[in-house]
Write a structure and sequence with these properties.
15 helices, Rossmann fold, 33% helix, six-stranded parallel beta sheet, alpha/beta, 17 strands, 466 residues, 2 domains
Amino acid sequence: MGNAMRVLFATAELSPVATVGGLAAAAAGLGAELRRAGVDVDLVMPDYGGVQLVDATSFDLDVPDWVGPAVVTRGRHPVVGPLTLIGVTGMARPHPYLQADGSGWDDNSERFFRFGRAVAALVERDRPDIVHLNDWHTGSALAAMPDDRPPTVVSIHNLAYQGVADGSWRDVIGPQAEHFEWWGDTNPLSGALARADKIVAVSPNYAVEIQTPESGFGLDGLLRDRSDVLVGVLNGIDVDVWDPSTDPHLPANYSKKDMTGKVACREALLERVGFDVDDTPLATVVTRLTEQKGIDLLVGLVPLLEQIPMRLAVLGSGDAVLAAELHRLADSHPDSFVFVEGYDEALSHLMFAGADVFVMPSRFEPCGLTQMQAMRYGTVPVVTAVGGLVDTVPDADLGPGGLGFVSAEVAPTHLLAAMFRAARCVSKKRTRLAIQKRMMNVDWSWTEPALNYVDIYRELLEGDRG
């Protein structure tokens, strides 16, 4: 790319190469859009094994003995394009973080400390203009990078995960290891935040929340101290994948100009989950079954669905106890509640397109993607007032530009009230169409977020390193 800005972008996940959560989609979406904006992005991730690259070349990195051999493989991936894989001892696994029983690999900290050290060696070798690190998995790279390193950005996708490990790791991870001390332990995220030239949270509201004791997961004091270099940049979604006018998973396509196909999608979804085809508002949830996602808040509301009235279909997997409870509720309330355990790509797209309402009762949500996907499909979101949900879903009852309905508190009673308001909205044709048009007119793509990151990179290159 000639004189293009060179950015080394390190991440533990990258869709579709290795996908666990929102980090994978964010890394892929931002990386692709930065390249379209003319940035020379080196996408760097761990070599988990089994990835075939076209025109691949390999070389070794100069790393300490504890890292073991560190082999870089560079080539072209059929989806993401140019890709750099770093293989270190113990990194190749069938899942980036988890064993078959759902528990984490016992050596996760060691694996990603090795990866971080190898990233630092690659930075030293290639000397990019900017180093962009993502979450704790890459944070320890800053323990080995000197003060005269390239300007560094650290993105926080989820502050709840910090990779805290035994304090003995500070003896080996690098000469800047004192910044990674954490109550006697070693915290790769806190150290990265202490040394970064710019810290980016994945939504403006999340950038504010994480500076509070309630949402800072112990790092709020550090983030307040570094508030001068902390900003929030809202994520985007892949609007080519999430496009109701071209989506191959749908029985009928539609757009904001012609919503006819959404009716066919609704009928197909009702038949797929076993509900009668009628006008009762249909809500869906597509999620991981974790405490963060707040699906347990819906448990006590299932017996009340008929009073709204509303029917609810949930697609998800995760916590086995919660899954068992959802199955029990589906058996007890078959006319108003359905639970499909697991993940089904085609069904997930149909649940965004065929529903009237999409429910997202998160306890915390750094950015959130599914509420944007729902709105892209003209499905009215019900969300809690946390993180990026605040930035993306203004309440339709509080102003003319509203896009959904917000539960003021993360509590069942407030969530129920928001679901009532959503059901009332979608039951009125003119009101529903008006809010659908507004949602589908919003640009949910990565275009603006990528330009915001380019501005951040330029500021750093011009000398504003906080």
